[in-house]
Amino acid sequence: MGVFTADTGHEQVVFCQDKQSGLKAIVAIYSTALGPSLGGTRFYPYATEADAIHDALDLSRGMAYKNALAGLDLGGGKAVIWGDPAVDKGEALLRAYGRFVESLGGRYITACDVGTYVADMDVIAKETTHVVGRSVEHGGAGDSSILTAYGVFQGMRAAAEHMWGEPTLRGRRVGVAGIGKVGRHLIEHLTADGAHVVVTDVNDAALTWVRATYPQVDLVGDTPALVASDIDVYAPCALGGALDDATVDVLRAKIVCGAANNQLAHPGVEKLLADRGVLYAPDYVVNSGGVIQVADEIDGFSFDRAKSRASRIYDTTKQILALSDTEGVPPAVAADRLAERRMAECGRLRSILVPGRR
């Protein structure tokens, strides 16, 4: 994939290699219009270098839009480390990566993502100050999945109010695909709200945990079975691309609202959902609780303050769904327009020079 020929709109894409430690990383900065770019580091065994580049570019653009709609004065970026974290991850590799982050001079702030954890951020922080999502012991926010799940639940409440007139999932059947860090917290919120929860996961250990912790939750064999089942809400909480043409064709839920990034497999899926009367709560809106949590570290972390900010995901989702109806476009398009408007309007103010400020 050619970064220049594809005209992705990115400000900067950096390739980082340290042969001795085995580091092969890509840092993609989509926009710094609102401030330094913030986004996690994904450590994943991509099949090809092109796949790694594609993921970095897509995810960094999504982070710019997510941060804009979360009300953060931060731009969007993302990094991927190409490798198997179970085999390749080590202190030297993470510290080498940290030095590359530091070399960007604060244009990119990193955090956790798939394959990286709070402990990894503490190691990276030995080489750079531009890292959040650190452990509580080091003044960080700790596990960002807590507010990610909380934000998804708030977005789901807003979607339920838009669809059924009440901001609750009580009595609704909610299907959760993926019982990882976020999915587990989401189940807690849903069961407490009185929802009937159905789950699936490729990991048997995750299903065993659900059986032991929430015996009232139903289990199904796989995601296709979950999607085709009689559910009111579908919550994709694993990897991206969960919504493709075939999935939309058999989907029985009236709302899609989940934690996974990049849920739409290709442009146009949002219209397919709308044509079938399915209300899609844009993923980068409802799953922004995690980035709100870790971004709060920049000013000295306060969980209560971060949770208060994450609760506004409910209001933002309502605003987007109302805009979707007013402008006659799918919610994903309405969300994009709102994010682009904020980046353009607020980013423009940086042309007014203030001594000592960017």
Describe it for me?
The chain has 16 helices and 11 strands. The strands form 2 sheets. Strands 8-7-6-9-10-11 form a 6-stranded parallel beta sheet, sandwiched between helices. A 5-stranded mixed beta sheet has the order 1-2-4-3-5, with helices on both faces. It folds into 2 domains: 3-63 and 74-138, Rossmann fold (3-Layer(aba) Sandwich); 145-338, Rossmann fold (3-Layer(aba) Sandwich), CATH 3.40.50.720. It has helices at residues 3-6, 49-69, 85-88, 91-103, 118-124, 145-164, 181-192, 204-213, 223-228, 245-250, 269-275, 283-286, 289-295, 303-310, 313-327, 331-347; strands spanning 12-18, 23-31, 37-44, 75-82, 108-111, 173-177, 196-200, 218-219, 233-236, 255-256, 279-280. The two termini are 33 Å apart. With 358 residues, the chain is α/β, with parallel strands linked by helices. NAD(+) binds at residues 178-183.
What are the key terms here?
single chain; Rossmann fold; alpha/beta; 358 residues; five-stranded mixed β-sheet; six-stranded parallel β-sheet
Report a brief summary of the structure.
By secondary structure, this protein is of the alpha/beta class. Helices cover 45% and strands 16% of the residues.
Question: In terms of topology, how is this protein built?
Answer:
Layout: H1 3-6, E1 12-18, E2 23-31, E3 37-44, H2 49-69, E4 75-82, H3 85-88, H4 91-103, E5 108-111, H5 118-124, H6 145-164, E6 173-177, H7 181-192, E7 196-200, H8 204-213, E8 218-219, H9 223-228, E9 233-236, H10 245-250, E10 255-256, H11 269-275, E11 279-280, H12 283-286, H13 289-295, H14 303-310, H15 313-327, H16 331-347
Parallel strand pairs: 3-4, 3-5, 6-7, 6-9, 7-8, 9-10, 10-11
Antiparallel strand pairs: 1-2, 2-4
Helix pairs in contact: 2-16, 4-5, 6-7, 6-13, 6-15, 13-14, 15-16
